[in-house]
Every structure is written in C-alpha cells, then in structure tokens.
C-alpha cells in the first residue's frame, strides 16, 4: 500500500526533523574516537580533530573535500524537503572554503510513501544542486520506518585556502551570515512559522562562502551553525585554545517571530540537549528568550566566521552580522547582554 501525502504532512512521518535530529556532541566524540586510528599522509583534515568535512590532498593546487549529511523531514512539502536537505549537505563544503562539484543521493523512505512524493524530494535536491553547480551522479535508496534524505557530496579547495573550525585569533570578530531561530519556528508545526523558517533554509551558503573567500587570509576559522546551535558550534571552534569568546547578539541576529516564541517560553527538544552537551564554562547564562536563540538548532544555518576586525564593514555590507569577539583567555564563552 502507498500513501498519498497530499493531505498528510511529511513531518507526520517522523518524530524529530532537520538538524535537530543530530546525535548529541558527546556521542559524536565517542564515535570519532572509536573510528580514528591514524591519519594518512594524504589526509589534510580527518578524524584527528572535529571539523565540517574531510579533506584529502590531490596535488599542489587541489584538495578533495568529502562530506555526508542527511536528516528526517524538516518541512511538509517533499520538494522543499529535498531542496533544503541538499543545500544543508553542500554547506559543509562551503564551510571548508571549497566549491561543491558532485553528489550522491542518500534516500530512505517508508513503503507507505507514494513514489511521486519520493520523486518530488529528489527533484528538489536536483534543483538545489543545479543552482549550486553540482552534478548528481547516483545514490542509494532503502526502505526504512522514518524518511531520511541528504547527500554525500564532494568539492575542491586549494590546500592553502582550507578553512578549519580551529584557528581563531585574539582580537578576531565573530560574524554570522544568517539570523537564528529556525528550530523554534519549525517546532510549532504551524504553516506560517514553517514558511518563515523555509525562507531562511532555502538560502544557500555559497554566497556567504564567496564573501569570505574574497577576504583571503583575513579569515581565520569557519563553521556552519546547525543542530548544536550557535553556542555548541562556537564551542567546537574554541577547542582547546587559550581563547575566550564574548557573544553579544544584536537584535537582527534573531528572526523576529522566533524571538516572540522564545520570549513566550517556547523551546525545542534540542535546547536541553545542546545545553547539557557543552563541555566548557559559559558565563552570563540566563533563561531569557534572547539567549535561547543561541541554543536553537538550525537547519542549513549560516556560516560562522572568525575574521580580522578590519574587514567587518565589508562583510556587514554583504549580509553578515557581527555577534561577538575573540579574546585571550582559557576557553570560556561569555554571553553579554544583547545590543
């Protein structure tokens, strides 16, 4: 039997969608340790330290980026689900400084779902890839209880232009390319809130990547903000460095409707997970709605970059938001009152 989901949301087929479905950071640390043996001579970025994608040396001017990402339905429409899933997968390549080139589809759907709905999901991904200059070469499809969809993608980057999560400098500014709040909007399951979130999730990070690439060596560290929320991904950027991050979100860093929900006490199920998974001191924490945005899981969230402060105006003019700074310290995150 197949089920025409015209009257049934894809999200009704899953318990947790988008990047909110990510396993918590502590489990990922355990799995990374279990998988890691030793780094090969051609491996430039592997399991030795957490990062957004793997990078392998090809020659003196070219390195291969590989990544994989998939998640359960995050929106109701299958075409939009495929479109957002593809962009989210490609984002990891952009976060490494590269350009995406090829992709393989990762498809898992229950038997009750009509073939036309599965095809619509693939069509959405195909359009996102076409717009990004990426060719889909194949894929793998299985039958499972809850839908999942995403890409295994490859791209290229010059060996001297790889961006890492680590590498922040004392005095850097922290710049974010998209506002926060997608997670809480999706959690209401209201069509109006989903529409606001979808508009944000359909923004490719390619443009943000290109803006950062134009700065050259002024870019010191980059990641994309997804399921762990802003604070979780910033914590990964700090790593074991002798640096602190001071965060001061301006009003434009949070989507207005999302802020209304936060202030009303709405939180996603990932909020507690993202708070308890932190393995460093976070100063200045309160229960304010504005701070809740920092723990909100994002799907295809923006790029978070640590840059030379002399380039702040240039990035602001290209859509980035200044959210904090990096100072000498001991690995703490301090949250200041918002501007």
Automatic annotation (TrEMBL):
NCBIfam families reported for this sequence: selD
SUPFAM superfamilies, per the entry: PurM C-terminal domain-like, PurM N-terminal domain-like
GO molecular function, one term: selenide, water dikinase activity
Keyword ATP-binding: yes
Claim: Zinc-finger is one of the keywords in the record: no
Gene Ontology CC terms, in alphabetical order: cytoplasm
InterPro entries: PurM-like_C_dom, PurM-like_C_sf, PurM-like_N, PurM-like_N_sf, SPS/SelD
Record GO biological process: selenocysteine biosynthetic process
Keywords from the named record: ATP-binding, Kinase, Nucleotide-binding, Selenium, Transferase
PurM-like C-terminal domain: residues covered: 170-312
Official protein name in the record: Unannotated protein
Annotated PurM-like N-terminal domain residues: 51-157
């Amino acid at each position: 039997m197949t089920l025409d989901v015209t009257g049934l949301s894809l999200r009704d087929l899953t318990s947790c969608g988008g990047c909110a479905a990510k396993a918590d950071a502590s489990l990922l640390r355990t799995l990374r340790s279990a998988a890691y043996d030793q780094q090969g001579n051609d491996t430039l970025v592997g399991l030795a330290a957490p990062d957004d994608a793997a990078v392998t040396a090809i020659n003196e001017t070219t390195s291969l980026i590989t990544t994989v990402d998939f998640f359960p339905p995050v929106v109701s429409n299958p075409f939009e689900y495929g479109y957002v899933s593809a962009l989210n997968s490609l984002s990891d390549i952009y976060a490494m400084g590269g350009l995406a080139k090829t992709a393989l589809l990762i498809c898992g759907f229950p038997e009750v779902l009509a073939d036309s709905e599965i095809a619509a999901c693939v069509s959405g991904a195909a359009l996102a890839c076409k717009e990004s200059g990426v060719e889909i070469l194949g894929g793998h499809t299985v039958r499972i209880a809850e839908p999942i969809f995403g890409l295994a993608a490859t791209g290229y980057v010059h060996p001297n232009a790889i961006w890492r999560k680590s590498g922040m400098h004392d005095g850097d500014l922290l710049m974010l390319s998209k506002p926060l709040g997608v997670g809480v909007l999706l959690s209401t399951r209201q069509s109006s809130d989903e529409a606001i979130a979808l508009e944000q999730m359909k923004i490719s990070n390619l443009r943000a990547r290109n803006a950062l690439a134009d700065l050259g060596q002024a870019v010191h560290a980059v990641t994309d903000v997804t399921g762990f929320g802003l604070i979780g991904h910033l914590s990964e950027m700090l790593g074991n460095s002798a640096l602190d991050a001071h965060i001061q979100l301006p009003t434009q860093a949070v989507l207005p409707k999302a802020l209304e929900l936060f202030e009303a006490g709405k939180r996603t199920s990932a909020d507690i997970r993202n708070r308890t998974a932190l393995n460093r001191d976070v100063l200045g924490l309160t229960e304010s709605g504005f701070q809740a945005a920092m723990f909100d899981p994002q799907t295809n969230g923006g790029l978070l970059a640590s840059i030379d402060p002399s380039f702040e105006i240039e990035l602001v003019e290209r859509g980035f938001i200044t959210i904090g700074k990096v100072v000498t310290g001991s690995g703490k995150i301090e949250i200041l009152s918002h501007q």
